[in-house]
Q: What sequence folds into this?
């Protein structure tokens, strides 16, 4: 039986869908069978982020309504056959919570990981997505508003009895953390009293590459560390400040601001 992990956030705009796609790709490169489920039935973007929008024929709503079989709705990512997507493209298709959970449970029978891209906020869509998961990753940015919303989301997850939770801190500026202008991972752990499974540096290239990033980049390293943390339940978290420490690092910080 595969692990069902909901990837959520307290607010929109923190990069949750990109993190979902990047993590799915990283897990697939490590040999895991992964299905990404787009549970955001109103503002769905996972098919677009993965570059699979033109291949969509059936979606999550069709499966829950019995219009097609689950296998017919699944899309395979071209470069990694072990990565699949269950899209959600019906703008007015209301998905029943029980039917959604049954679909996820069926996927978990043949996959190592089912990653559920959850709608932002804590409304009915959030409850539906969380109801099918036993674990959660809360994506946040190191800003006061995002962290406050992440803290509230962690409280809702606890109320819904999702006990295994962790944060993914996204869009971190290593130069600002090194100069004390942005909260560090350690600061966030002390503030929210929660595990941090990953720290993803800000990367404009990553935003334009459908979840994939060039091998060797900071973003690629960070996402692979996150994937290993998810698999093992422990491990290193990427440190975005290391190139900005010392005399040479001070010069890099100055050039970044120039």
A:
């Amino acid at each position: 039986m595969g692990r069902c992990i909901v990837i959520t956030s307290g607010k929109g705009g923190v990069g949750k869908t990109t993190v979902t796609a990047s993590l799915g790709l990283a897990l697939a490169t490590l040999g895991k069978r992964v299905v990404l489920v787009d549970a955001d039935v109103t503002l769905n973007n996972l098919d677009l982020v993965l570059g699979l929008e033109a291949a969509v024929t059936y979606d999550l709503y069709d499966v829950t309504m019995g219009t097609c079989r689950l296998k017919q709705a699944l899309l395979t990512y071209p470069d990694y056959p072990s990565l699949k997507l269950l899209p959600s493209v019906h703008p007015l298709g209301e998905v029943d919570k029980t039917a959604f959970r049954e679909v996820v449970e069926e996927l978990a029978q043949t996959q190592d990981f089912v990653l559920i891209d959850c709608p932002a906020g804590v409304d009915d869509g959030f409850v539906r997505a969380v109801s099918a998961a036993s674990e959660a990753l809360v994506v946040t940015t190191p800003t006061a508003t995002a962290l406050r919303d992440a803290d509230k989301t962690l409280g809702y997850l606890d109320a819904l009895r999702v006990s295994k939770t962790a944060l993914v801190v996204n869009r971190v500026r290593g130069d600002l953390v090194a100069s004390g202008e942005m909260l560090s991972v350690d600061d966030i752990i002390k503030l929210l009293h929660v595990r941090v499974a990953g720290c993803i540096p800000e990367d404009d290239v990553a935003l334009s590459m459908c979840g994939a990033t060039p091998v060797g980049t900071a973003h690629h390293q960070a996402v692979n560390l996150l994937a290993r943390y998810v698999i093992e339940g422990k491990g290193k978290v990427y440190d975005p400040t290391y190139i900005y420490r010392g005399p040479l690092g001070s010069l890099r910080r100055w050039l970044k601001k120039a």
The beta strands are 3-8, 34-38, 75-76, 83-86, 113-117, 135-140, 164-172, 196-201.
